[in-house]
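User: Please predict the structure of the protein below. I'd like the answer in structure-token form so I can feed it into my own downstream comparison script.

Assistant: Understood. Taking the following sequence of 322 residues as input:
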Amino acid sequence: MRLSLLDRSRTRVGHPDAEALHATVARAEHAELIGYERFWVAEHHGVRGIASGAPAVLLAAVGARTSRIRIGSGGVMLPLHQPLVVAEQFLVLDALHPGRVDLGLGRSLGFTAPVRRALRRDLDVPDTFAEDLAQLRGYLEGSAEVTARPATRGRVPMHVLATGRGIDVAARLGLPVVVGGPVLDAEELPDLLAGYRRQFHPHLGSTPWVTVSLDVLVAADDATARELALPEAWAMALARRDGEFPPLEPVADIHAATWPDQVRRRVEASLDRVVLGSPATVRRRLERLAEHTGADELMSSASTYDRDALLVSDRMLRDLVG
């Protein structure tokens, strides 16, 4: 499998939000140095634990500090934007960093009701995701009624982030698919991906491409890796309890905190979904994942409070897959 990273610009307790963005750029430089294929950034709005709400802006900074690695969005939430504006943003990126830009597209409408109201989106709005994807592709390829600028010689590849129905949309439009989240735990995932490959409708010579996105953390031993995964699992448990996704906390502070039974159960469930452990443990789990999904690419979306330990994990994962 090819190997990529998705960095969500996670904030840390006691540190300014801006530090998370600088850390994302530094991680991209490190990822390029050690041989990753892609480095993607996310779009989240009004979330305390995530600093990045503008992928195109952040990618401009990442692109300026790197020279080879592909850069992209994981993803731009298309229902929140006009397709023409998205096309213009990513054509600008492609003009600045030719041949390196990917456009990953999702359909989330926002984490909470206040955020959705601020974005002027309503859950009752009709789902036009497939139509918007087709329209956006027309702008990127120069075949739409309006010509998006700047015109570039290359093509910005589109990828569909799918947690369910998006797999079928990607197949119909002949687009690569990125699967993550709840769909990874579904027993029918192999059948869903087989259907994607079987029903894939090529567009300009495109072929099926499956990227699996999940948290992967590698350390010297399983126990250390589990500690690395704890801050993110803790944040996820608190988000489900409190309705707000918090910054990452140090491991020592988490152990010293009060753990209600429900939070403990949710933390343990989150940790069980992470691919974590020593190199040998992670290799076994990734081999099973590859056999289960036939994935062409693995995109690790892992985070932890200790940024230095995260870079070490990135290098160990690169060594494993390489």
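That's the full token string. The CA atoms of residues 165 and 192 lie 10 Å apart.
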